[in-house]
Amino acid sequence: MKSKTLIFIGLPMIAVTYGLARFSYGLMLPYLRESLNISQSMAGLIASSAYLSYIFAIILAMIYMQKVGPRMIILIAGGTAVVGMAIISMANSGIVLAIGLFIAGLSSGFASPPYADAVKKWIEVNKQSQTNTWVNSGTSLGTAITGIVVIFMVSDWRLTYIIFTVLAILVWMFNYKYIPKEKNTNVNNKAQKIRVKKSELIEATPLIFASTLLGVAMAGYWTFSRDLVSGMAGVPEFIVQGFWIIIGLAGILGGFAGSISTKIGLTSSYWLGVIVIGSASLLLGLYSSAIPIALSAIAFGSSYIFVCGILILWGINIFKEDPSIGVGISYLLLTVGQLIGAALGGMIAEAQSYETMFIIFGLITLAALIFKPKKLVESIETDEQSKAL
Length: 389
Known about the structure:
Elements: H1 3-20, H2 24-36, H3 40-68, H4 70-89, H5 94-122, H6 125-136, H7 138-153, H8 157-178, H9 198-203, H10 205-230, H11 237-250, H12 257-264, H13 266-286, H14 290-318, H15 323-351, H16 354-367, H17 382-386
Helix pairs in contact: 1-4, 1-5, 1-6, 1-7, 1-8, 2-10, 3-4, 3-5, 3-15, 4-5, 4-8, 5-6, 7-11, 10-13, 10-14, 10-15, 10-16, 11-14, 12-13, 13-14, 13-16, 14-15, 15-16
């Protein structure tokens, strides 16, 4: 399989599963709340369903990858995105919306692991890093696309999700056509066993706490930032409408996590990322004018993928014998934090205000500075980093 072909089908699938199926909920929340009469706390609990399903899916994908092969997992990812967004488009209550978002959230958990496996199996070594980078850039692209579509669709969220569903069907069809059918692969007859040493888990304790704390703040931003900004009287309409696009485009900067780490070290990179992403939340909580809001979107968009990359490198540095375990633990605990953050954020916002919530979450983010990697990464495993970005 050619590298360009895998990029052609993989990049849009990542864009669909992450940008459209998973993260678009936060963008559409102002319209969903108004239409379905959803409270802030209920909105947070519904958002948590997508993070919960992501945890289930990524664990299943890691366990059964070698049993069923990447093609099957990829098609399941696309299928759950289609079904989930179709249900969302027809939702007439918070319960139906939660069901749709739960199914849609499965797609992102299923999507990332099989593409990394496909790159290793089918792409020549000298093109693997480039292929992984392009495929996983779909997260930022999908986020920007959702913002652009909503500008044209204004508040018609049902039609917007119908459009997203149609796009997901087209992407699924391309993947069905071009992903090779494996006749004689290294597919095992039983699920892969995950083995972790006790000493590695002890060393990973700071990573576990840091990932969880950062996940809390990230979920608050993805879920509630657009709802807050859309209600600010002092923010120009072009900033409100372009808020999600700014986040998506700024995400491209996050791809430099590996190169920056080699220059300033993993610990300094971690501190930098945490401070920037914490500042993004604090800016939303403290200011309600155009420049701070735009700076907040840029800070979050760039630091989200950057921090995720740093956490992955941290995990790889701990689990040297099986780097994929480091990737999995980093992302699973990050998602656990996001699950907690989405529910907790809605409760705080309803009891106090969105501004209070973002100030608290910004401080929680900065609290993660007390944890740090014990030692620097001597060699960056770009392919392993790309698995979950």
